[in-house]
Amino acid sequence: MTKKIAAIDIGTTKVCTIMGVQDDKYGLRIQGIGVVPSHGIEKAIVANVTQVKDSIRQSISKAEMMAGTKLTSAYIGVTGNSIHSANKKGTIAITNNDQLVRQDDLKRVLDVALNSEAPGERKILHVIPRTYILDGHEVQNPLGMHGNELGIEAHVITGSSASVQNLTQCINGVGIGIDEFILEPLACAEAVLTAEEKQVGVLVADIGGGITNIAVMRDGCIYHTGVLSVAGQHVTQDIATGLGIPIELAEEMKKKYGSLQPIQEKEGDKVVGENGHSIAYADLCDIMRARLEELMRLIIMELPHSNTASLIPAGIVITGGCANVPGIVEMAQGVTRLPVRIGIPSALSGVSSAQLNDPSYATTVGLLLWSMKNAGVGSQKGMQNQPSGFRRLFSAFR
Ligand SMILES: Nc1ncnc2c1ncn2[C@@H]1O[C@H](COP(=O)(O)OP(=O)(O)OP(=O)(O)O)[C@@H](O)[C@H]1O
Ligand SMILES: [Mg+2]
Hints:
Layout: E1 2-10, E2 14-23, E3 27-37, E4 41-42, E5 45-46, H1 49-67, E6 73-78, E7 84-93, H2 103-114, E8 122-134, E9 137-139, E10 149-160, H3 161-173, E11 177-183, H4 184-192, H5 195-200, E12 202-207, E13 212-218, E14 221-228, H6 232-243, H7 247-257, E15 271-274, E16 277-280, H8 281-301, H9 308-311, E17 316-319, H10 328-336, E18 340-342, E19 349-350, H11 362-374, H12 380-384, H13 388-397
Parallel strand pairs: 1-6, 3-19, 6-11, 12-17, 17-18
Antiparallel strand pairs: 1-2, 2-3, 4-5, 7-10, 8-9, 8-10, 12-13, 13-14, 15-16
Helix pairs in contact: 1-3, 4-11, 6-7, 6-8, 8-10
This protein binds adenosine-5'-triphosphate (ATP) and magnesium ion (MG).
């Protein structure tokens, strides 16, 4: 069976649409990719609906042109400061005469865990059961087991209704349906982490233009998600301010010459330049180092507890556009004292798919991979479809 699938990543610096086909025999094949600069997005949040719609329209039409087919609906990445995540707990009594845990009990225990969520202003985006506790014992799947008391711990991700509505308005406004919203850190984790890392404990940091998405995985499950409002644009801003050059030039210099590798003696007086401006290479690198070292410390502080070595023994995987800065791995190792590597999305097949083998596309590729694995699972859509949605949600995450 062949199924069309598409994802749109509306980032602070770029909008990327990927269209593909999913096929029982050949897996996923990319048919069209459309990357354009994004306008009207600030820190991953819609700031100007008209500009965002224009950017999305351009990105879609590029991808459609390559694919030779029309895009009708897509999975959409969502992130930003309005996203909150928390591990929620709930406990219920099993009151059936035979003390058997049934589907209804799973729904009821989840409802109890979700009860503490403020209704109205927040929209539930994902509900991921992390563990069940039956009469004090952790169990993977309590369905069909006997017990008196059933507990659940679930990772619940919510977004502010307003920011989700604005995004919906932009997507629907260009005539595209929304298959599902997917939290970007989850998508990113799907694209770049190994099963072993997810089991042992790992943090993935997608350092983009306006924000840094963070996901912590442990025991094969999501443990923590977070968003920091610091990323590549701040590095550029620091360079522009610190060296007194225009933003566009600072961005160009950063990408062309910027590095976190130790400055060699012979490079001490090196001058680099573009468009009639010249700057000291050492100053450029020092400014970048100061901001990115601070960001690494913020990433570690975002962790829910301070014993990082035991929480994430597999260390940190850095991805997103800023993972391209030379020397970022060594810098991050120095700051965190943890293993660090760069996350590049695994190779896909299809038209121009080699273009996606760059950390900048980790989240976009992850949106497709996540949707293939978990379509309809744990989302708002899934929640509305309970109990069938819950059944899918239950089976997919354990
Ligand atoms: N070689 C490079 N050296 C330094 N910075 C780079 C390099 N390549 C890309 N970047 C930076 O990466 C950032 C863009 O990353 P990315 O494409 O992941 O962001 P985005 O998805 O558009 O934004 P966000 O995820 O924050 O909404 C920009 O700030 C850009 O300057
Ligand atoms: Mg991004």
